[in-house]
Amino acid sequence: MRAAAFTELIGPDGVSVIERESPEPDRGEATVDVDACSINHHDLWILNGASAMVDPTDLPFVSGLDVVGTVREVGDDVTAVAPGDRVVLCPNETCGHCRFCREGPENLCASYSLYHGGLAETARVEASRLIPLPDDVDATTAAALPTAYLTAYHMLRRAELEPGDLLFVPGATGGVGVAAVQLADVLGVRSIGTSSSASKLETVAELGADHTIQGTDPDDLRSAVESIGAPDAVLNHLGGEYTDLGMGVMRRGGRMIVCGRTAGPTSEIDIADLFRGHKRIVGSTMGTQADLERLVDLVAVGDLSPRIDRTFPLDATDEAFRTMAERDTVGKLVVMPGE
Ligand SMILES: NC(=O)c1ccc[n+]([C@@H]2O[C@H](COP(=O)([O-])OP(=O)(O)OC[C@H]3O[C@@H](n4cnc5c(N)ncnc54)[C@H](OP(=O)(O)O)[C@@H]3O)[C@@H](O)[C@H]2O)c1
Ligand SMILES: [Zn+2]
Question: For this UniProt entry, which residues form the secretion signal (predicted)?
């Protein structure tokens, strides 16, 4: 089978299509013929050599978390899925028995990890992590859900928002950002989204953002947000100087939920404003399999239509990563190994 592998961790030029032996399922596993696999900034961190998750001396590495396809074969003791089933994978890898797994939510697992391997014609996965796909949910749409929408959904749950509340999403045009705006809309939560690009913001407004602000300078963004109102929560996937910005504009008692650091791995904040304003900062990673099942339901009933910017054949996976690195996208980029 063919796989789009990272053969060098040097950015998009390090992606090559390679031949690999087709995987066989072990006990408790299934193999899935992959129809669609969306890419995430997480894969780009790895490809840029900026992730500790991959050993640069152990290449090629096949990334890709967001697997959607058809079950080809199942191993012993698998009853939940059968060959021919259309499925989406929850990329959570948990031990199932540590204190945090027992207490839940499962993404708190002490040895939490992520599945990689979807940028290939066939993927070998844990069968218990497969969620059946209703017939009317197409593969491309479903492939948007497992990382970006799951992360945004879990963050919104942790933000404890209510209908009519105001959410601030710095960087509202990528995977997590668009998901946050769309899911806020589903919940009846108003949102403010930002981007460096005015044209991308037009699309974000069509997708449900109530207010959009073009710009990247935190001081400019601060006054623009203040003229709209004080957000009840901030969904922060950028880190860097956007953390202090978000904390500063948030209302008293507001919640900042953080999942990323695209704009910088460290942030300075005003400690006095944090405690005087009774504000909260909450770290969040991915979500639960139950969250992902809920997202599949939302798509199936027509309440959520994930935004797919473009699809790419497996051969053009390097191009997909180039598009992401150049920030030339609104929403998700999806690789289609089955085409
Ligand atoms: N902890 C978790 O579980 C988890 C899960 C998913 C993602 N993440 C993290 O969350 C972040 C977003 O992931 P994603 O897949 O949604 O990425 P993405 O699609 O590449 O995000 C693009 C967005 O980020 C903005 N952006 C990119 N570089 C920027 C910079 N240097 N300064 C300011 N804004 C910038 C873009 O703004 P423009 O419109 O201006 O281009 C766009 O809105 C990543 O850091 C990722 O690792 C974490
Ligand atoms: Zn565990």
Answer: none
